[in-house]
Amino acid sequence: xxxxxxxxxxxxxxxxxxxxxxxxxxxxxxxxxxxxxxxxxxxxxxxxxxxxxxxxxxxxxxxxxxxxxxxxxxxxxxxxxxxxxxxxxxxxxxxxxxxxxxxxxxxxxxxxxxxxxxxxxxxxxxxxxxxxxxxxxxxxxxxxxxxxxxxxxxxxxxxxxxxxxxxxxxxxxxxxxxxxxxxxxxxxxxxxxxxxxxxxxxxxxxxxxxxxxxxxxxxxxxxxxxxxxxxxxxxxxxxxxxxxxxxxxxxxxxxxxxxxxxxxxxxxxxxxxxxxxxxxxxxxxxxxxxxxxxxxxxxxxxxxxxxxxxxxxxxxxxxxxxxxxxxxxxxxxxxxxxxxxxx
Length: 343
Description:
about 350 residues, 8-stranded parallel beta sheet, 12 helices, oxidoreductase, detoxification, dioxygenase activity, Aldolase_TIM
């Protein structure tokens, strides 16, 4: 029997989608369905995270919090300046003046980690980089399980070495940001189920998996490959409770958008999105510079959202995006996981 670090009636995990997409209403719906909810702490201060966690405690005692682990990539100033120059005409057309100075931050990591050790939660996951042994030890000391997002066998080995309790295996077909610890590497396409098998062939650890999930059949395939739970994000983007922008929702169902692509154009870190005009124009000149590019394009993307322009917006989507549907997230999670309910 597969050992699970997530023990919920249904083997479905609601992915932590930062930036307002994972709302309190969405996490509550996932919990009501019998799945495992994650509070997304990305882009939040510790002060902003606190009420979200406390609200989650009122719903369930079985949940997690996701953190962006610091992973600074030195900014190639010449390449960054060239990207700014390329973006300036499109920004000017929207009445936006770009700040050419790279902005760096660590997403308030230390403050959020401090808060989570003072107000322990059942589980913390980390993405964008592997946790340090010190981080794992601090969370373990207050009774919190720690899981790492991994995208390759070497990452899985390294995570095991620092003492994590389990792995979230993210395949390259997942929507939004890749959790890779090396955002500069070329991410080759492959099925998530194959990555799960490769990792479990080397490591005897609890594993959850996601990436490109398009429906119940793939949930079964991932569980059959040895995952104890399946992470879904894109399939929840059109749900009633998600904070997905209306422009993004419409694009997921529009005939106009027919493909997804990993691109660094929006944030300087590989992330899978629907291919729109922004991706076509700026991906060829995109640079590895997260979070500098994220900050650079933030106002541009906000303007596109306000103008209801899908071609200037980051339309995060995994390859299974055609499986996303309207309706309650509670129903969506039940439909995905009820056949695989745990005894």
